[in-house]
Amino acid sequence: MVESKLYQQNPIQDQLKPPLSTDLTAPSSFLESTANFPSSSEESPSREEWVFRDNRSLIHSNHELGSSVHSIVFQKAKDSYYWDVNNVQYLDMIGGLHTCHIGHGREEMAQVAYNQMKTMEFAPNIYNYSHSSAIKCAEKLVSITKHEYPSMERVYFTSGGSEAVEASIHLAERYWSLLNNSQTKKKIISFRNCYHGSTFVSSSLNEQVGKDEYGYQNLKGPTDRFSKDSIFLSIDFPHDFIVNSFQKHTQHANNGFFIAEQLENLIKLEGPENIAAFIAEPIQGVNGALEPHKDFFPLARRICDKYGVLLIADEVMTGFGKTGKWFGLSHYGIEPDIVVFGKGVTSGYLPLGGMMLARHLCQVLFKANIEHPFLHEFTFSGHPVCCEIVMKNLEIMFDENLVQRAAVMGTQLKSTLVQRLQGIPHFKEVSGMGFMLGLIFDEHVSAKRIHEELATCYHILVDYSRQNDRVVLITPPFNIHERDLNIFVDSIEQCVRNIVNTQQSTYH
Ligand SMILES: Cc1ncc(COP(=O)(O)O)c(C=O)c1O
């Protein structure tokens, strides 16, 4: 166990405990069992009981049923910390689920929600009905976004990122059918190893492990992604680590240029008259904060313009400051036609996502007296309480200069991590920008194992890439204390060294 002074002074580390006992797994028959786990007390059930009840009653993504040793049942959150049902404190290095920019448990956010619920908890945002919260929120979002993407003009709200991706595909196809009366511009290009969500169409854009059982790409026939008639097409992600792994024998002078060429060749092969849009994460999130080669996006923008293909930026992860700018594509000096957002727009205080459209799209899509108005109906589109929460979140981010803080502190954190980890066997590099960073290892170290050991032994929460198990992903709240960043650096160094040493002693 770690023993530096830093740890001894810190409340989190005061609670460092040996790894949780491994006998917490409920009996193998627990799934069938309807009996109640014997309760420690009516008012405060034990952690074991919560884990048992979780396994019995709740479905959550990527949950390894039957293995409870790494289960954490959260109960409270404040600033950059969570507490579990046993009151054990955890340092949150992933801002909830890459959502929380302003820190947890802020009184003023609760007050805003309370006030809006008393005034008007809900109102329809459909037909000619609208309400002031959604209108003000849309205006605010457009005005902020215009600093980096001056063409943005209108907002459509959803309840989360996947729905927003789905709506952006609908609008892209509708745009071409209204502009050119085109019935063929339907195909969508995305990156391999991308993540765009879990609804049916957004899943179809993904090509990641575990998703191959769901989404259109698994339907045979006209939607099969490997047939000429495929609707969902993909190109490689222009990161050296990815390109070099499949181009083992051919090194390209510039992988950005190489993949841009791949994009252009694919458009030409399929026929530009068949391609509606190219959708991309400016920095791949779930794949591990992977940055594209810096030349790729400027070239991709030119290729999209040349062939009449819309560029959709999926900024669900990168949006609202995580990369040290308000939006990720602005690092490359270009703007998209559609921006999709979610997560940090509310800091996770309530669910909301959406998309913003550039002026030239709006001029086609929202002309007066259009024969069939846009029909994409979500009951909770523009929910008034969620919209008020967005506005308060953005106000806090401005008042506390949080995007700039993410840029400055993120850069420092990145260079400290490089200094401390380089030289450790199997560590390769730190990717990402601002407070969206990925620690990349080679195939001999499992990122999932680091994620589990950090949570269990150090009480620190990080994420890992489900696609390749080689990247540990961190996205802390932007106002995280410097002291906690130091604790994180010390802990991850120690954790990785322990894992590598144990592996080496096992090999020898
Ligand atoms: C880039 C990106 N797009 C879309 C989504 C889906 O968003 P949601 O989970 O809010 O539906 C995510 C979620 O992680 C994401 O990272």
From TrEMBL:
InterPro entries: Aminotrans_3, PyrdxlP-dep_Trfase, PyrdxlP-dep_Trfase_major, PyrdxlP-dep_Trfase_small. Pfam families: Aminotran_3. The keyword Amino-acid biosynthesis does not apply. Keywords: Pyridoxal phosphate. Residues 1-13 have a biased composition (Polar residues). Residues 1-26 are annotated as: Disordered. One of its GO terms (molecular function) is transaminase activity. Belongs to the class-III pyridoxal-phosphate-dependent aminotransferase family. This is Predicted protein. The lineage of its organism: Eukaryota, Discoba, Heterolobosea, Tetramitia, Eutetramitia.
